[in-house]
């Protein structure tokens, strides 16, 4: 009977993995999140940051970032077993507007971000936050 218990648990675990809703290789994929400051330069001083970003998840604070025009902010993440990995950012266009947006949500982004080197690309522009998964076509997903 003890031997049966020792076999049953690993067998149940193996069977549950066969029915998991996405490929087991997704656990090992590094997703790259890129946020680029494409806001217009409103002062004569290009070395003055005009975008403030604060990005985090429930378990990890990526940190605050003051960004210059055309500067890129990046980090990597993996999808957790429950597929609940979620990073959000607050973007503040200095002296203009502020918005909080989902920079990475596993259930939304695991397939769409695989298309271009496992990258989710965001562009902060004067009319909103744009998304691309190919670095060519951009969609305004979060208007200001």
Helix/strand order: HEEEEEEHEEE
Based on CA atoms alone, the radius of gyration comes out at 20 Å
What structural class results from the helix and strand content? alpha+beta
The total strand number stands at 9
Across the major sheet, the strand order is: 4-1-7-8-9
Average predicted local confidence, pLDDT = 85
Give the low-confidence spans: 15-24
Principal-axis shape: elongated
Give the end-to-end Cα distance, rounded to a whole number of Å: 63 Å
Largest sheet: 5 strands, mixed
Total number of helical segments?
A: 2
Helix content, binned percent: 10-25%
Strand content: 35-45%
Family: Belongs to the plant self-incompatibility (S1) protein family.
Protein name: S-protein homolog
Keywords: Secreted, Self-incompatibility, Signal
Subcellular location: Secreted
Give a short overview.
It holds the Pfam family Self-incomp_S1. This protein is α+β, with helices and mostly antiparallel strands.
Key words describing this protein structure:
144 residues, alpha+beta, five-stranded mixed beta sheet, four-stranded antiparallel beta sheet, 2 helices, 9 strands, 42% strand, secreted, self-incompatibility, S-protein homolog, Self-incomp_S1, signal
């Amino acid at each position: 009977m003890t031997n049966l218990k020792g076999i049953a648990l690993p067998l149940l675990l193996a069977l549950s993995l066969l029915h998991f809703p996405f490929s087991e290789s997704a656990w090992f994929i590094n997703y790259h999140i890129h946020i680029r400051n494409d806001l217009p330069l409103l002062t004569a001083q290009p070395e003055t940051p005009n975008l403030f970003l604060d990005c985090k998840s429930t378990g990890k604070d990526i940190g605050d970032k003051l960004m210059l025009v055309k500067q890129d902010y990046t980090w990597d993440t993996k999808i957790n077993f429950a597929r609940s990995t979620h990073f959000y950012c607050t973007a503040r266009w200095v002296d203009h507007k502020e918005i909080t947006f989902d920079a990475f949500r596993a259930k939304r982004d695991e397939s769409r971000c695989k298309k271009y080197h496992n990258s989710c690309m965001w562009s902060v522009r004067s009319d909103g936050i744009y998304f691309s998964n190919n670095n060519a076509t951009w969609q305004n997903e979060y208007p200001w």
